Amino acid sequence: MKKVIFYLIENNQDIENNQDKAPQTASPDAVDANNAAHADGVHEPITHKTAIHEQLACEKIAEAWQARTRILVACQDQAQAERIDEYLWQLDTDHFVPHNLAGEGMKGGSPVEICWPEKRSNSNRQLLVNLQESFPSFANLFHDVIDFVPSDERLKALARERYKAYKTVGFYLKTIPVKVSDNSSQ
């Protein structure tokens, strides 16, 4: 079964606003990004250049690599790909993730390859981590996809469109809320 896990990023402001509308019940496997990251030692401070969903993506990439999963990270553009690359290089040695930008590194690529629309690998991967704003046309090549719903309203609307597209092509969808603090920026 093909499946997509959407991480719904909620900051404290979003949670306070939603409490006035309807009671919120988190799924049993909901993750508090700050606590989970600190617990497994992967957490790194967010730089001014790294958005919350990019940091969370890197944490999920590190977790998947620990399980020896081969991963394709689909970025919106080369600048985002380079931010993800830099973040992964900054992880402590206990959580090192062998990775490269598409077209670099050894033949066949590293276990984790970071691409963008103008530069995509054809290597076989098990997991797609999608950071692109639109539905990736190659998503059907994967059985497992991780995607994100940032709290920014424009990006949230684009995530809704991707959600519909994944559903249309037959993916099973699961959403996991992730709480972040107010002082984090998108």
Secondary-structure element series: EHEHHEHEEEEHE
Quick one: overall form?
A: globular
How much is the radius of gyration in Å?
16 Å
Provide the residue-averaged pLDDT.
80
Strand content: 15-25%
Count the DSSP helices: 5
Low-confidence stretches: 14-49
Q: Largest sheet at a glance? A: 8 strands, parallel
Order of strands across the main sheet: 2-8-1-7-6-3-5-4
SSE arrangement:
Elements lengths: L2 E9 H8 L11 E2 H8 L11 H15 L4 E4 L3 H12 L9 E3 L10 E4 L11 E4 L13 E6 L3 H16 L3 E9 L6
Parallel strand pairs: 1-7, 1-8, 2-8, 3-5, 3-6, 4-5, 6-7
Helix pairs in contact: 3-4
Quick tags:
186 residues; alpha/beta; eight-stranded parallel β-sheet
Structure description:
Helices cover 32% and strands 22% of the residues. It has 5 helices and 8 strands; from the N terminus they run E-H-E-H-H-E-H-E-E-E-E-H-E. By secondary structure, the protein is α/β, with parallel strands linked by helices. Helix 3 (52-66) crosses helix 4. The longest helix is centred in the last third of the chain and has 16 residues, at 153-168. It has an 8-stranded parallel β-sheet with strand order 2-8-1-7-6-3-5-4, sandwiched between helices. The model is unreliable at 14-49 (pLDDT under 50).
